[in-house]
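Lecture notes, unit on protein representations.

Consider one protein chain, 279 amino acids long.
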Amino acid sequence: MPWSQIFYLTKHLADSRESLKEQANQQQLLEIQKKSIQELGLLLRETRICKNLAPEEAATESLIRLGLLLAIESGNFEQLPEPVYIQGLIRQYANVLGLNGEQLAKQIPIDIVDLPQPKRWWVLPQVIQLYPVHLYVAYVVVMAIAIHSLSRSLGNNTAEITIPLSPPIITESPKPIPSISPSATPTQPVTVAMTLKSQSWLRITSDGKIEFEGVLEEGTQRTWTAQTKLVIRSGNAGAVMISFNGQASRPLGNRGDVHEATFVPSPPEPNPKSGNDSN
C-alpha cells in the first residue's frame, strides 16, 4: 500500500475519533443542561409558592412572559430558548424572588469547556522527577521530625507525672440528693436535626426569632434548637429529613409540597421512684 494511502487512512481514523468524541461531549452537555434547568425550575417554583406569589404576579415583577416563566418552573427544555438566554431568564427571575441569581445561573453549563473534568491525582507533572536521593533525603527529614516530636512529648509527660504518697481519705459522708417534685422538673428543650435529600428553600423560626431563611443544598446537615417553640417551613417538604429530640428520622412532608411544622418541648418522662413517702 502506498504511503499516501496509509497517511490518508490514518488521518481519516483520527478525524472519526475526534468526531465521535465531540458528539459524546455534546450529548453529555445537553443532558447536564436539561437536569440543571429542571432542578432550578423546581427551586424557583418552591420559592415563589413560599412567598405566596401567583405566576402572573411573578411574571409581571420579573418582566418575563408568563409562558416562558411556567416553562422554566416545569423544566420544559423544548419550550425554552438557547441555554445562554435561559441563564439570563433564571438570573432575572431568581433576583426578583430574593435569591442569588448570578450563582444559580452559573449552574447551567453553556459550552463543552464548562463540563466538569475528572481529576487524576495520581498523575505527577512531567517536570517533577523523583530520584532515589530525593527519597533518601525525605526519609531522613521525616525521621528527624518524628524523633524530635517524640522526645518533646516524652519530656512534657515526665514533667507532669506526680506520684501521690497516699490515697485520698474521704471523711465526709455523701449528702443526700434532694427530691424534685414533678412540677419543678424542667421540660426537655426542642432539638431538631435536619438532613436534606435534595435542594430546598427553608425558613427556621426559633422562639419567635427567624434564625435562617434561604436555600440549602442537597446533603446539608443542620441542627436547630429552641426553648419554647421551633417552627420549620419548607418549600420541598419531602426533601427535608428531620429527627425531633433524638427520635427516628422522617420526612417533613411530601416531595414538592410547601409545609410548615411546629415543635414544642417534650414533657419530662415520669419517674416511678419520685414522690414523698407517706410513712
